[in-house]
Amino acid sequence: MNSENQDEELEVLRSIYEGDGSFRELNHKSFQYKYGIEGEPHSFVLEISWPESYPESLPDINLDAFYNKHMKTHVKDNIKSKVLKEADANVGSAMTYTLIEWVKENLEELLIDQPSNLDTSISVANLDIEEKVEHLCKDNKERRTGLTKAQKRRQWDRMDGKGEKIRGYDWVDKKLDLGSGVSPDKTELRQDLETTPTGVDFTPTRRELTSTRLDFTPKTRFSPESTAMQQVSSLIFVYLVSCLSTRASALPKTFLNVF
């Protein structure tokens, strides 16, 4: 029975407030109506919701919409209590339209304690909070960008004193650690040297030297042209040796003229 009464009242509300921009249907059981000119201090939104037992019970009255953030708390509580009092006198019958129109008729009385100007103290407080938050964020950012002494020392080692990175700052040493065969990183070697106690002799013994695996990998990278020239030179040298070992007179004259 209550659902049938709610359906009938819903159709009536749609027909009455059709084209009214202040009326808004959130769903089949919740409605909002905006009073006053938008942006004005005396403008607010009233929300009415139907419970399952409506209209045999009171509807839910709500003024907690974000649009009402400028209103005083005691003003909203006063409006809610008076609307519920009016609704209590209409229990058992459709009352949503009645409550909306009752607020319209008593709007001036309901907002008598609401300031006519927006409270500037709220905006000032918000500005203070924003400034504090911005200041804290700036301090945290500066604190995060701070480097430790060790980091500054490593960074300075990679610079040429003018703020520019020197050539080969990111190269990694390929020297093998004696006795372990491990290729340590440059930073680890520097840290080991910094933490090494003074007055200790680390000269390797003959046994350590004989067991050390040395890296004979050529450090110079040859281009394809230089490699080809070396091969040609080697072939010419072999040819000369072979000819001289047999008979020096057997060398071609043209070949001797070239060299």
From TrEMBL:
Record-given protein name: RWD domain-containing protein
Pfam families per UniProt: RWD (PF05773)
Residue ranges annotated for the RWD domain, each copy included: 8-110
Species the sequence originates in: Daphnia galeata
InterPro entries hit by this protein: RWD_dom (IPR006575), RWDD4 (IPR042770), UBQ-conjugating_enzyme/RWD (IPR016135)
Classification via SMART domains: RWD
